[in-house]
From TrEMBL:
Protein species of origin: Rhodopseudomonas rhenobacensis
Superkingdom of the organism of origin: Bacteria
Lineage: Bacteria, Pseudomonadati, Pseudomonadota, Alphaproteobacteria, Hyphomicrobiales
Entry annotated with the keyword Secreted: no
Pfam families according to UniProt: Thiolase_C_1 (PF22691)
Keywords: Transferase
Domain Thiolase C-terminal span(s) in chain numbering: 237-379
TM region positions: none
Protein name: Acetyl-CoA acetyltransferase
Gene Ontology MF annotations: acetyl-CoA C-acyltransferase activity
InterPro entries given in the database record: Thiolase (IPR002155), Thiolase-like (IPR016039), Thiolase_C_2 (IPR055140)
Amino acid sequence: MTAMTRGHAAVIGVAESDLGIVGPHMTPVDLMAQATMRALDDCGLALSDVDAVFAASAQVRFGPMMLCEYLGLNPRYVDGTQIGGSSFMSHLAHAVAAIELGLCDVALIAYGSTQRSVSRSAASPTDINPYEAPFRPLMPASAYALAAARHMYQFGTTREQLADVAVAARQWALLNPKAWEKEPLSREQVLASRMLSDPLTVRDCCLVLDGGGAMIVTSAARARDARKLPIHVLGTGEAIGHGSISGMADLTTTAASVSGPRAYAAAGVGPADIDVALLYDAFTITPILFLEDLGFCAKGEGGAFVQDGGIAPGGRLAVNTNGGGLSYCHPGMYGLLAMIECIRQLRGECGARQIGKHDIALAHGNGGVLSSQCTAIFGAPATL
């Protein structure tokens, strides 16, 4: 995406599927379809208006084909890019390009997972690396624990600072009626919880839930007739750093340091312009890494940035206002839900958790073991 395409496309509809535990009779494609119909209702379009489908799921090998069959769609454009939790920011970038090139008019981005209702291993199969497997890591937690341990060693980041990420997420979640977690969480509770992969406890790790979502994207011109306020795509950036954690060049610097600047350049904004940031929080170390790599603070200062409520309600930056993957919902791949929260914040639809100034939002997705990084920046109409 270049500066010429800034604001060319807009998000006009968003919705979640049912979240939490959806029962034994729902499939990932059921959840995709459910979210799709809700997102179409959100923007006032019909299923017949959709002519592009983007989908990914760890449980469904051929996501776009299965969803199209389920919904009776025969789209002009399809994309099944699967790079983990950041897939949906990548889908958004590709949808914007396809709309600009005239390859489609109305794009659907969808996701669904039943990882809570079925065994986690069946829902999220893990690739076996023969060079790592002999050490018997608990994946993906052990991979993120390596990054956390290195960050602590190199920059003095503390367990308390990691815990503060989980505490902030919970404080936001308590303001979100759809969030899974309903009880307050203290730093002491995080530190005292069961160790999973040192230095990460179970409270440093994301939820394991069912759920999904959908997003409708169209041209800025067509978006003017949508039912609700259109939110424009200002810029996107994509980058991949490695596949396995043992192939990561520097455990403290992710490819967000590449995707972020690309998105900022396309959007014509910088970190100081962002009002709310949805940063993929599969583990408490990831928001710290992304705050640094996306330019909200210097490398090594992420721990201090989040300490003592820095990203909680009333803190220096509104981060993961829905409660994030740590306390709201993490259905295997979280990126689409992060973007949905951005859209709702910019529309002013978030009730008790609504931030004051809400013109520009950033959603950052992470896939694999800090492997794929994709950044999307959204703006209200006044930002064009």
